[in-house]
UniProtKB/TrEMBL annotation:
InterPro entries: ArgE/DapE_CS, Bact_exopeptidase_dim_dom, Peptidase_M20, Peptidase_M20_dimer, Peptidase_M20A. It comes from the Bacteria. Residues 216-333 form the Peptidase M20 dimerisation domain. This is Peptidase M20. Residues 1-23 form the signal peptide. Its cofactor is Zn(2+). One of its GO terms (molecular function) is hydrolase activity. Keywords: Hydrolase, Metal-binding, Signal, Zinc. PROSITE patterns: ARGE_DAPE_CPG2_1.
Amino acid sequence: MTSRLLTLPLAALALAFATPAAAQLSNTEERITQIVEANLERDIALLEAMVNINSGTHNHDGVREVGQMLMPEFAALGFEVEWIEQDHVDRAGHLFARMEGDSDGTNVLLIGHIDTVFEPESPFQTFSRDGLSATGPGVVDNKGGIIVILAALRAMRDAGTLAGANIVVALTGDEESAGDPIAQSRQHLIEAGQWADVALGFEGLSVMDGRDMGVVARRSSNSWTLTTTGESGHSSGIFREGVGYGAIYEMARILDAFRTQLPEENLTYNVGILAGGTPAALATDGLSAEARGKTNIIPENAVARGDLRTLTQEQSERVAARMQEIVDANLPGTDAELTINFRYPPMAPTEGNMALLDALNGINADLGLERMEPLPPARRGAADISFVAPFVHGLAGMGPAGRGSHAPGETIDLTSIVRQAQRAAILMSRLGENPLTTPIALSDR
């Protein structure tokens, strides 16, 4: 697949999808909506089968088993299907399905993931249906999203709009806990993003105050580790010249300065674990710590870990620089070191993303659905679509609606599969009719 940059003027993108005020669905689009509705029970049956196979990120056999279940589904639609092993990053692998038709058509990347947060030891393991809702591990995040992708593509095939399309489906096997180094675990996804013009992320639909929302931005997900050191000694000497403040006061100074000096819109920074004493150290997995100390000993070490979430790369870099300035202003007799691990980049809000949401809202009008307003970015976390955000116009939140993701009792609104698959299928079909032959330049983003 060859890569191409986005250079389409924003006005041209808007015109490509403009619909008159009285516009209606075409006969083909009506057929798409009917096909999606008619196949709902079939889709729910496949969802149940997937959910009942544990595919926690670290259950490699389970992730592969769900992948093997899905590969024939995409092959039957005319896709070339590949399982990409990821043993080198201690993960199961990714499923990629490719269809390349009209060389002048819009290149569309559909993103989802096979893995869930529920490992084999979780008590929450099975699918259970109650009318128009169902519960199960990953039923929304993200097995329901995969069902929306398949439902949309099947409707396109049966309505005749899939022929000649340029589509790559990327289903990662480690979205919930990406393999390290992340540059390797996301290599194939990034390459697909460089090929694509448009990316659609099928994480769950965002609903706020009972209304479906459009996701044109997602914040980054980064982690930081802070270590402080001080001169140990008898507590009666603390604060004296030549003795200093000790590691815990230095840690407290820095964390409180983060609290008071960093706040700005769309930025959050959490402290997840903290320990101090003589000695104090994080465990190798970074998830626990060990510390010892006495009230009459000045603490020698302190360590803390937390996360950092930003809306743009510029914000990430600027906030990281300010954090370092705070860390460097040491109390007497102390030292500190900050390490930031940049993992999931932000999906910044762009005019191109908003133009895609406008296109989707044209479809909503034709379907008789309410207009979708942009979701406030702070309400969504990071996702795989962020890795391709620098290269494409993107919309996230194209999966089904539900509640309780990442927790026992995760629940899907089964009716949302229909409207989300209809939206996605019609959007991709219109992209096929109005190719983005001159995509937006990165300098314009």
